[in-house]
Design a protein that fits this description.
Order of helices and strands: HEHEHEHEHEHEHEHHHEH
Bound molecules: flavin-adenine dinucleotide
Strand content: 5-15%
Shape: globular
Helix content: 40-55%
Strand order of the largest sheet: 1-2-3-4-5-6-7-8
Number of domains: 1
Structural class: alpha/beta
Largest sheet: 8 strands, parallel, barrel
CATH class: Alpha Beta
CATH architecture: Alpha-Beta Barrel
Distance between the termini: 18 Å
Number of strands: 8
Radius of gyration: 18 Å
Oligomer: single chain
Length: about 290
């Protein structure tokens, strides 16, 4: 089933993101974790793609497994930075051969040696979207950043490039995480004004331990509202309490999103089936 049909349906959608193993050594443990999440029967699941292509095969393997075994539609991420046209085409062949029709087209984070860029055929995700459209048959999504992409000096430019990406043939967008829903509502206003009309899926990260936070902020540049900081200050040193508070905070964000007409929410579950199950349980009478 195509993600575009799921997220534009009457029913609110609740989906989960998982990541594949880095090496074959931990394939089994990650397969089990992703199966436990698939067993919750979410609207769909996305499987990330490792920078540099190291885990590309596992992305397709994990995505195909949850789709085949649990009948949960899979959205395979595919990033193009440091790839060649030939390499990307092989990835698309593999995704198609595995029966996966949904792809999130990404540039990927610039590796440390990005300056060399030798042999790389891509600069931006828009180029990948164009190539996927030419390839044909995929339901194509892409990333967007309610607080602006960290490399963009001005949000206006970021939104102009986002429009280019959507116009290239991307059918839906998934947001970077955010911890204050007003940031998303303002962003939606701005992109609609800029003529971007495709559905936007809200990405929510349940923060379940205080150690995650520094990394999240440094990678994504997300603002942490004072209300959230108080929770971390109070519960951060107690893992169980922080997990419960983080799940409650994410649940509250999601309820507010649904209440305000955002019908599609994607939870960055980090392969944590307990967190995914708790969030789904908290929303069981809302997403039914
Ligand atoms: P782009 O859309 O190419 O944008 C990158 C930057 O370039 C932006 O600042 C944009 O404004 C700018 N830009 C775009 N076009 C132009 C142009 N023509 N001229 C000048 N500037 C331009 N990374 C992974 O490695 N694997 C994953 O699985 C993964 N999943 C993700 C899922 C989501 C929902 C999100 C939000 C991010 C994900 N990422 C993933 C991270 C993502 O790859 C990085 O944020 C990356 O830095 C940007 O990727 P993009 O596809 O948004 O790039």
């Amino acid at each position: 089933m195509r993600v575009i049909d799921i997220i534009t349906g009457e029913k609110p959608s609740l989906s989960f993101e998982v990541f594949p193993p880095k090496t074959s050594d931990n394939f089994e443990s990650i397969r089990v974790a992703t199966e436990n999440i698939a067993g919750l029967n979410p609207s769909y699941m996305s499987v990330t793609y490792g920078a540099g292509g190291g885990t590309s095969r596992f992305t397709v393997d994990i995505a195909a497994n949850i789709q085949k075994k649990f009948n949960v539609p899979a959205l395979a991420h595919l990033s193009c930075i440091s790839s060649t046209h030939q390499g990307v085409r092989e990835q698309m062949d593999a995704i198609r051969a595995a029966g996966i029709e949904n792809v999130l087209a990404l540039r990927g984070d610039l590796p440390a040696d990005a300056a060399s860029g030798n042999g790389w055929d891509y600069k931006y995700a828009t180029e990948l979207v164009r190539e996927m459209v030419d390839y044909g048959g995929f339901c194509i999504g892409a990333a967007c950043y309610p607080e602006g992409h960290p490399e963009s000096a001005h949000q206006k430019d970021d939104i102009a490039y986002l429009k280019e990406k959507v116009d290239a043939g991307c059918q839906f967008l998934v947001t970077q995480m955010f911890f204050d829903n007003n940031i998303l509502y303002n962003f939606l206003y701005k992109i609609r004004e800029a003529g971007i009309t495709v559905p936007v899926v809200a990405g929510i990260m349940p923060v379940t331990n205080a150690r995650q936070i520094g990394r999240i902020v440094s990678l994504s540049g997300c603002a942490l509202p004072q209300r959230f900081r108080y929770i971390v200050d109070r519960f951060g040193s107690d893992d169980a309490a922080m997990r419960q508070a983080g799940i409650a905070y994410a649940t509250e964000q999601i309820v507010d999103l649904y209440a305000n007409g955002i019908n599609a929410v994607h939870v960055y579950s980090m392969n944590n089936a307990h967190v995914a199950a708790k969030i789904q349980e908290n929303l069981s009478d809302i997403v039914k």
